[in-house]
Amino acid sequence: MRKETREKDPRGAGITAKTNNTPSLELSEGQLEIHFRRLNLAHMRRIYKDVAERAEQEDWSYRDFLALLLAEEVARRKQTKLQRCTRNAHFPFLKTVDEFDFTLQSTLRQSVIGSYLGLDFVTEGRSLILHGKTGRGKTHLAVAIGYRAIQNGFETRFTTAAELIEDLSNASKKGNLQESLATYTHPHVLVIDEVGYLTYGPDAANALFHVVNDRHLRKRPMIFTTNKPLNEWGKVLHDEDMAAAILDRVLERGRFIHLDGPSGRTRHLKLEEALLPKAERLRISGISGSEFPEPTNCPARMVCNAARAQDLEVSYSLRLPRASANPFIYAVLAGKVGLQLEIWLQLGSDSLGKPLRCSSFRVSDDMRIVLQRVHGELLIWAKIRGLFGF
Q1: Which has the closest alpha carbon to 258: 152, 75, 128?
Q2: Which residues on adjacent β-strands are paired with residue 303?
Q3: CA–CA separation, 302 and 346 (whole Å)
Q4: Does 240 reside within a domain?
């Protein structure tokens, strides 16, 4: 290592020529260890010997030697902080935005999520509600945004709505609400997962409002994932007015994003292709989209148009209560890869209370279908041995 020892100018103007009479300050390894520990330079304490040996071999200056030691210490501290904050965030798994498949989304673009990956997301207190059916990647994106905030130097906390509400409800009963609130109000970013998935207690709205209102006043961002439309949050939280107040605060500086596309968990099964759209499955009297069969005045009959017929063995038994005054239509849809089976049963009032049996139509693969109707009892046992289409 180059030695750059110099002596002071007699006039005190600066540093001048090298001298051999300058006393050297030599510390033992034990003394160096004490200094490193006192300054909390743990990583520097582990590497300084190797770095010093390399510096002597490559003839580094003292400045370069010190610069490398400091750079290594800072890098290790950043890595340690990232690991600690990630562990304290309690993520259920670790995902990044790069791992999200945006090609499955019809409206969501990566640039939209990209605006939540910078420092402004935290400093401006912006919030986000990710809505969609199960398996659409809501939690994936929420974790990815929270993890990026940690990488940017902020703290993130992940929790489910059920866990948060239960925790604060129990704390309120014990008189420790303020202490428990700090868990959810202190972190820079709070992720609340699965709003509406489970049933909550009667004070759910109050518990959630405490968190949302405190974070709103501090301009600290929140990320929600939910499978419920915003107009159903009142039912979920058991308080329409309080739910409206919560959403008002979240969306003041927030955004609502809907995720569609197939489920990422069952995409390999191609279930979306095996099932017809809801409007085609449940079309009754020309009216589409009914969730349950509707009463009609049609006489009892079965409409089955088979495109192909092979070895059919189907038997079913139907019995409806005599107290019922109206006829019904029942639609049964069973889907499999390469199979679509639709059976329309139209029952008139003259069939009420009478068991009907039939074994004259054809289906494919071995499967049994059991459908129970709340207004009656419909049992269909199907043994399928062919291909059946409509």
Answers
A1: 128
A2: 344
A3: 6
A4: yes
Q: Give me the number of domains the chain comprises.
A: 3
Residues 110 and 181 in one domain: yes
Name the pTM for this structure.
0.63
Domain boundary among 65, 86, 107: 86
Whether the CB-CB separation of 254 and 124 falls below 8 Å is answered with: no
CA distance 136 to 226: 11
- Specify whether 214 is located in the same domain as 165: yes
CATH of the domain at 246: 3.40.50.300
* C-beta of residue 185 within 8 angstroms of C-beta of residue 155: no
Phi first, then psi: give them for residue 224, nearest 5 degrees: -115, 145
Average of per-residue pLDDT across 12-23: 47
User: What 3-state DSSP class applies to 283?
Assistant: strand
Q: Are 6 and 18 in contact (CB under 8 A)?
A: yes
Tokens of 180: 């428990």
Q: How many residues in the chain?
A: 390
Phi, psi of 111 (to 5 degrees): -65, -30
The verdict on 347 and 325 lying in the same domain is: yes
188-202, pLDDT tens digit by residue? 999 999 999 999 999
150 lies in a domain? yes
Q: Are 171 and 132 in the same domain?
A: yes
Assess whether pLDDT exceeds 80 at residue 22: no
Structure-block tokens of residue 100: 């999200």
Question: According to the model, what pLDDT value does residue 1 have?
Answer: 57
221-274 residue pLDDT tens: 999 999 999 999 999 999 999 999 999 999 999 999 999 988 888 877 876 655
Count the Cβ atoms, other than its own, within 10 Å of residue 275. Answer: 15
**Domain span holding position 35:** 29-86
